[in-house]
Amino acid sequence: EVQLVESGGGVVQPGGSLRLSCAASGFTFSSYEMNWVRQAPGKGLEWISYIDRPGNNVDYVDSVKGRFTTSRDNAEKSLSLQMNSLRAEDTAVYYCARELFTSGFDLWGQGTLVTVSS
Amino acid sequence: QSALTQPASVSGSPGQSITISCAGTNSDIGAYDFVSWYQQHPGKAPKLIIYDVTNRPSGVSSRFSGSKSGNTASLTISGLQVDDEADYYCSSHTSRGLHWVFGGGTRLAVL
């Protein structure tokens, strides 16, 4: 089955760290650019990070630059998001999403909830 | 404030047609034909329903159609069904230092 499965979410204190993972299956992971998109409770979607197919080119939305790091392991078919210096405003469901050759996100994971709270 | 502007809500009756607008700028919608639309039911992940302005992924109903004029994209749903009740988001590739921007979302009520 073609799918993405996120894991690693949870409750963390402000200033803390968390690492999210996204496991891909059913398709050639290395052939696709990947992204992270988040959704705060009751709010809309927000693109936060992009990584190219070999993992050499990574980009972020300004609000997470310097705090979040995206990486991938094509051999393990996995995508990761290392989140440091977490803030209350980072509270959201985090989705990994497969990019359809700049045309949009054609495959999404089920999402993992990150709650930043003391 | 989202980069793309959508109406907060729209409504229609079963069988009717509705259109959701998505206003951007000449740095996103106006610059690229990489506009996509997503449907999201409560508690679920978004689902791609339109890509490259007008194209439907395999398995998406032909009742969904997309268009673009200048800096504004539109999603039209014809023959409304109860199951169409969901949140809809537009998205565009952007040249403003981000790869993608989203609209704030539109809640569709099928009354």
Q: Roughly what is the average pLDDT of chain A, rounded to an integer?
A: 96
Total count of helical runs of at least 4 residues of chain B: 0
Low-confidence stretches of chain A: none
Number of strands of chain A: 11
- Uncertain stretches of chain B: none
> Major beta sheet of chain B, specifics?
6 strands, mixed
Strand tally of chain B is 9
Helix share bin of chain A: under 10%
Write out key terms for the chains shown.
heterodimer; A: 118 residues; mainly beta; seven-stranded mixed β-sheet; four-stranded antiparallel β-sheet; 11 strands; 0% helix; 52% strand; B: 111 residues; six-stranded mixed β-sheet; three-stranded antiparallel β-sheet; 9 strands; globular
How would you describe this protein?
The complex is a heterodimer of chains A (118) and B (111). Chain A is mainly β and 118 residues long. Chain A has strands at residues 3-7, 10-12, 18-25, 34-39, 45-51, 58-60, 68-73, 78-83, 92-99, 105-108, 112-116. In chain A, the strands form two sheets. In chain A, strands 2, 4, 5, 6, 9, 10 and 11 form a seven-stranded mixed sheet that branches. In chain A, strands 1-3-8-7 form a four-stranded antiparallel sheet, with no helix packed on it. Helices cover 0% and strands 43% of the residues of chain B. Chain B has strands at 9-12, 18-23, 35-40, 47-50, 64-69, 72-77, 86-93, 100-102, 106-110. In chain B, strands 1, 3, 4, 7, 8 and 9 form a six-stranded mixed sheet that branches. Chains A and B meet through β5 and β10 of A and β3, β7 and β8 of B.
Detail the topology: elements first, then pairings.
The complex is a heterodimer of chains A (118) and B (111).
Chain A: E1 3-7, E2 10-12, E3 18-25, E4 34-39, E5 45-51, E6 58-60, E7 68-73, E8 78-83, E9 92-99, E10 105-108, E11 112-116
Parallel strand pairs in A: 2-11
Antiparallel strand pairs in A: 1-3, 3-8, 4-5, 4-9, 5-6, 7-8, 9-10, 9-11
Chain B: E1 9-12, E2 18-23, E3 35-40, E4 47-50, E5 64-69, E6 72-77, E7 86-93, E8 100-102, E9 106-110
Parallel strand pairs in B: 1-9
Antiparallel strand pairs in B: 2-6, 3-4, 3-7, 5-6, 7-8, 7-9
